Amino acid sequence: MADSVSAAITEPPQVPPAATGRVIDTDIPARLDGLLWSRFHTRVVAALGITWILDGLEVTLAGALAGALKDSPSLRFSNLDIGLANSAYLAGAVIGALGFGWLTDRIGRKKLFFITLALYLTATAATALSWSVTSYALFRFLTGAGIGGEYTAINSTIQELVPARYRGWTDLVINGSFWIGAAIGAVCAIVLLDPAVIDPDHGWRLAYLTGAAIGLVVFAMRWWIPESPRWLMIHGQPERAEAIVADIEQSARHAPDRPRVLPKIKLRMRTYTPLLEVAKTLFGTYRQRSLVGLVLMTAQAFFYNAIFFTYALILTDFFGISANHVGWYILPFAAGNFLGPLLLGRLFDTLGRRTMIGFTYGVSGLLLALSGYLFSIGALSAQSQTIAWMVIFFFASPAASAAYLTVSETFPLEVRALAIAIFYAIGTGIGGVAGPALFGVLIDTGSRGSVFAGYLFGSVLMMAAAVIGWRYGIAAERRSLEHVARPLAATEDIR
User: Fold this and answer.
1) How far apart are the C-alpha atoms of 343 and 121, rounded to whole Å?
2) From CA 223, how far away is CA 344, in angstroms rounded?
3) Nearest-CA neighbor of 290 among 56, 472, 105?
4) How far is it, in rounded angstroms, from Cα 481 to Cα 50?
5) 268 membership: H or E segment, kind and range
6) 153-199 pLDDT per residue, tens
7) Residue 396 and residue 462: Cα distance in Å, rounded?
8) pTM for the whole thing?
């Protein structure tokens, strides 16, 4: 039966797009949400989760290789150079998310999978050939653009293919798989920065090529994923959407509580959504949801990127850890980050989004303030600092993933990918791009008090986001996407 699903994915029926304005009455959303977990869903999770593994690998390498880049006889980076190069990566992710996010809503999810992946592979391989600060920053910018585009297409697809009862946990675990990549990056750094194995000036180049090699595997796995039937039914291809859903149903059982008569929704199909309508939807109709998404994204972006991009500098500059040993310290850190979504993710579907967002954001903010104070007074060793980070990010990891979950499920389908892109771009632009450069400067001062001030600022952002998320968030758990946010193409409510 799995083969029939693959056939529908690789050889979709050639149905000519319907004219704009055609109205259909469909039960496709209810059929997708009425399924139990199946091998098809597992394959989707595997294929999509690898992208976050790649991102985790990229970000970890950027941090773990910082010492090698500073010691490189050909590059000789300063802490500021490293901070600026990391900010270039994030700036690329912002621009890539916006451009590819717009395309994802316009031409579909699946086509963007291959465009963004090709850009990522090319730019990562080029990074290994960098000959100066400028070239390194440029290639990191292009790598970020590819990853930023992946965020929008993949988070949209997760929401639109996974049944509502599993949506929260699945989204958090896929986003949390970033930390599997982080662990791989740490191991690569341990091996490739060991002078007994290879010259570190060559080792950091081989580390980046590792990411490109893994990315090649993703090309094959992407064929497992169909175009989103929800996107197709609105964009003039309901027959193709019907064929894909029918094949998915052959490999998945229906949930026992699925109603005998499935609810339907009436849609007026369209070829695209004008940007003016997108702006009106995000900042008019759903302005409160937009505020929540912006706050959650900004807080987690500063919190994560500022700390994670510079953790290696903390270990080398303040604790005297050699650059080739930094990778050992990321392994427990990565374990805490992955276990958080894995173990707490179910609660987002049971206790609910608002409760868990408030809890995870609030606890991680408080713990960062506490550990920052202990760091400032010299009470932590390299080992206890790593344990503190591990505990903090056990809660911060599901919080950060919940930001993506929030902005990808609380807006209408027609603007979903671009909404993810806009809030990711604004949040990362405010919190993520500025964070690494700011912490690079703070670390360069050599003052623990200055670094603590940066930690305290991140803590305040997270606690403020906890209050706003709990007070104004949407209780979207176990609800159909079309109930959470009615499609713009809908001519009447689901009935």
Assistant:
1) 32
2) 31
3) 472
4) 25
5) strand 265-268
6) 778 888 889 999 999 999 898 888 888 887 877 777 777 666 666 77
7) 9
8) 0.81
